[in-house]
Amino acid sequence: MLFRINSTKDVNSGAGQGKEIETHVYETEDGRYKRFFDENDIEKFFSDWEKIYIHEETHGRYGYEKVLWKGALKVNK
């Protein structure tokens, strides 16, 4: 599985903003929910997967700085 997920450092995309519903999950002003991940969250949610590649990156192609986690996982057998 390949993934790209929001980093807790991505303040330009709403990290730490709005009403915190649970750890790293925020309700926006318009009622949407946004989840952000740190390294501990990735270990927790993907503990049953074999980690091939996981890296936190910063991109600027969206017109602003976006911080995200990018990774590749394999099903453990």
Question: What features would you describe in this structure?
Answer:
The chain is built from 1 helix and 6 strands. With 77 residues, the protein is mainly β. The chain has one domain. A 3-stranded antiparallel β-sheet has the order 1-6-5, with no helix packed on it.
Question: Quick summary of this structure?
Answer:
The protein is mainly β and 77 residues long.
Name the overall outline: globular
Strand content: over 45%
Regions with little confidence, pLDDT below 50 for 5+ residues: none
Strand line-up of the largest beta sheet: 1-6-5
Order of helices and strands: EEEEHEE
Based on DSSP secondary structure assignment, what is the total number of beta strands? 6
**Please, how many domains?**
1
Terminus-to-terminus distance? 14 Å
- Radius of gyration using CA atoms only: 13 Å
Q: What oligomeric state is this? A: single chain
Helix content: under 10%
Find the structural class using helix and strand composition: mainly beta
Average pLDDT over all residues: 93
What is the secondary structure topology, with strand pairs?
Blueprint: E1 2-6, E2 19-22, E3 25-27, E4 33-35, H1 39-45, E5 49-59, E6 66-75
Antiparallel strand pairs: 1-6, 2-3, 3-4, 5-6
